[in-house]
Specification:
Length: about 475
């Protein structure tokens, strides 16, 4: 008789084949009850609804939401296709968020379908689906990354609630900046006799200074006999950083986020002052190394101690030792020490008058390589892990924010670097540089450490005391 381990291995083999063919979301009818119950018991499967499961990690602690958030969009795609085929669409509001590059997981995802029962379906970790009975008499398309059915930009813009202009101005401006020709928009407005909506949309295009499109919509609607009252639907200040020729919504989204939060940062932070004694400042960095490494590594779930960090600093360890080789924590601590030295070199360039954004641009690749070189040397990581920005989708533990995909990263990082180079306020470079870097999440691992290195390079450029590495 086969033992429990043999039986579990058989179930895992079936689960592996299912994952290769179906992905992370598994329907109960796709696997036998025996295998399903065994995998649930051993925490390799997690129940979502009566008929649906997701593949999970048995090492996750109870209440860890990471597995669910990383599976959310894939689950929704499989679930909705299974129930409604192509006869569904995400709501206008959610569709527009997608067009603006915002893939944050919502607490409730609203879906429209003529076959829907007007029903809320409770999912994991406080999320839900609201399936709304509604004819799909609008333009839809397949979203490029998640493959979910969403409304076109034009349909979403016409159908969405007017509150979107006030509550999500960054996303709305980002999305409409991508509209190059108003023909599809005019077709929807004319067919639906949407004169009031046309007035809001014209005002929105005027707000972002796409005057030609605004005029064409107004003149065409008036030629068709509609009386148009133009209003600006946005309640905030007009943006300055919108790039109307941008090939990517992520570029505009980052620029608008930066502009929106900039004033609050300046208002909150004390004024910066130049470093008067560079030698003393650099010495202070050495003095806080132990505390900095302990806090920074602990934040990212490495088990470290002051003794381990001191051992790494002194070099009193042996990569050939089995005890040291098997310690990923030791490798992480060693990598942190090496990267720390590189960041110190970068900070010293500030005192020679170099631009802090240019220093980051030139040096952050070396910070990253030093961070993970010990793991590669010890065989814990692959050489390819030193390559740089990721080619795979990255997720953040227990976060509803989905970091940018690999194509978006290639647009977003140069945008961040340009903002760092041109921003005059040290506080803004420090706070928003850190925030936007984490928002982009360009690496498979080490994003938290890299963002803190970035923040502290920027803080040093303004002589803020500390420096506040941890």
């Amino acid at each position: 008789m086969a033992g429990p381990n043999i039986k579990l291995a058989e179930s895992l083999k079936i689960l592996k084949k299912l994952q290769e063919n179906r992905g992370k979301a598994i329907k109960s009818s796709e696997i036998s009850r025996t295998h399903r119950e065994r995998l649930v018991k051993n925490k390799f499967l997690k129940k979502v609804t009566k008929e649906w499961y997701i593949i999970s990690n048995p090492q996750n602690e109870e209440g860890d939401s990471t597995t669910w958030y990383t599976s959310f969009w894939e689950f929704c795609k499989r679930y909705l296709e299974d129930r409604y085929g192509q006869n569904y669409s995400l709501s206008s509001e959610q569709s527009l968020l997608f067009h603006a590059g915002n893939t944050t997981i919502p607490h409730q995802l609203i879906v429209r379908s003529s076959e829907a029962p007007n029903k809320i379906i409770e999912l994991l970790h406080g999320t839900s689906l609201y399936i709304m009975k509604s004819n799909i008499a609008f333009d839809t398309e397949e979203e490029r990354i998640t493959k979910l059915r969403i409304q076109t930009i034009e349909e979403a813009l016409v159908s969405m609630s007017p509150l979107m202009f006030e509550q999500n101005p960054i996303e709305v401006r980002t999305a409409i900046a991508d509209i190059k020709n108003p023909s599809n928009l005019l077709r929807i407005l004319l067919q639906g006799s949407h004169s009031i909506k046309a007035g809001r949309i014209i005002g929105a295009f005027q707000n972002i200074e796409k005057i030609k499109i605004a005029q064409e919509i107004k003149r065409t609607m008036q030629a068709a006999g509609f009386k148009i009252q133009v209003i600006d639907p946005f309640s905030d200040i007009k943006p300055k950083f919108l790039n109307l020729r941008s090939p990517s919504p992520y570029i505009n989204r980052i620029n608008l986020l930066w502009e929106k939060m900039r004033a609050d940062v300046i208002k909150t932070f004390p004024k910066s002052s130049p470093v008067k004694d560079p030698g003393k400042y650099l010495k202070s960095i050495d003095e806080i190394y132990l505390t900095d490494a302990y806090h920074s590594l602990s934040i990212e779930n490495y088990i470290v101690s002051a003794e381990l960090i001191q051992k790494v600093k002194s070099g009193d360890w042996n990569l050939e030792s089995e005890e040291d080789r098997k310690q990923r924590d030791a490798m992480a601590a060693r990598g942190y020490w090496q990267a720390f030295q590189e960041v110190k070199k970068s900070i010293s360039k500030l005192f020679q008058g170099d631009n802090s954004g240019e220093i980051f641009d030139e040096d952050h690749g070396e910070w990253y390589r030093q961070l993970f070189q010990p793991g590669v040397a010890a065989g814990l990581l692959q050489i390819s892990d030193l390559a740089g920005y990721t080619n795979n989708q990255v997720y953040i533990a227990n976060s509803m924010h989905t970091p940018l995909n690999k194509e978006a990263i290639r647009d977003a990082m140069p945008t961040l670097i340009e903002l760092l180079k041109t921003e005059e306020e040290v506080s803004v470079r420090s706070v928003l540089g850190h925030f936007i870097f984490v928002y982009i999440h360009p690496y498979m691992d080490g994003n938290g450490r890299m963002s803190r290195f970035l923040m502290n390079l920027m803080l040093a450029s303004g002589g803020y005391p500390g420096p506040l590495f941890h």
